[in-house]
Recover the amino acids of this structure.
């Protein structure tokens, strides 16, 4: 099961990815985590990334896709994986498609959690309050101003990825404003 979860910050991608990891026994892949691991492991792609990061540059799509290629070759990803937070641009989506094809793989699903963005700030404020009440640390990106900046960046840069997959007939939209269990059930229905 190889899939991508799309949607703005606060849409519930992380929550749903955690449930999918448990249900299917496949890893959730974070490009940031993979990048740090590749650098720490000193892989060829990791060394390229380290050089770019040390010079203060942004890691290229080519390097990120190379890190994903290396990561999905690991034993725990043989049954599949969940990409959350990647691709962020159409160029990344195209590069991912090319890489997967070169590996003889394809995506099984691209799921977009569709949400009412005007209600997301309230959702984030509530999430922060619940974490605080439970004695848990509040996520740095749950600050309303930080969140609004992230949402603006998503709308400017990443929202165009969903139409790319829709045009290719791969996208399924799910109402992310439903209760968590209802969203999980809708995803399970799509995945069969």
């Amino acid at each position: 099961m190889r899939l991508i979860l799309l949607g703005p910050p606060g849409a519930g991608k992380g929550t749903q990815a955690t449930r999918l990891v448990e249900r299917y026994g496949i890893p959730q892949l974070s490009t940031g985590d993979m990048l740090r691991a590749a650098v720490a492991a000193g892989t060829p792609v990791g060394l390229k990334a380290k050089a770019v990061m040390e010079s203060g540059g942004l890691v290229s799509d080519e390097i990120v896709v190379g890190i994903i290629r290396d990561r999905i070759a690991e034993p725990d990803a043989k049954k599949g994986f969940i990409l959350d937070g990647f691709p962020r641009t159409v160029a990344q989506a195209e590069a991912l498609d090319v890489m997967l094809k070169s590996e003889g793989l394809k995506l099984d699903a691209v799921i977009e959690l569709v949400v009412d963005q005007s209600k997301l700030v309230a959702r984030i404020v509530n999430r922060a309050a619940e974490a605080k009440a439970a004695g848990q640390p509040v996520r740095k990106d749950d600050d309303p101003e930080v969140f609004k900046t992230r949402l603006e960046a998503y709308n400017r840069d990443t929202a165009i990825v969903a139409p790319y997959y829709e045009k290719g007939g791969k996208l399924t939209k799910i109402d992310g404003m439903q209760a968590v269990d209802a969203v999980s059930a809708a995803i399970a229905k799509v995945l069969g």
Observations:
- Residues 100 and 106 are 6 Å apart (CA to CA).
- The domain at 2-26+79-191 is CATH 3.40.50.300 (Rossmann fold).
- The longest helix spans residues 117-133.
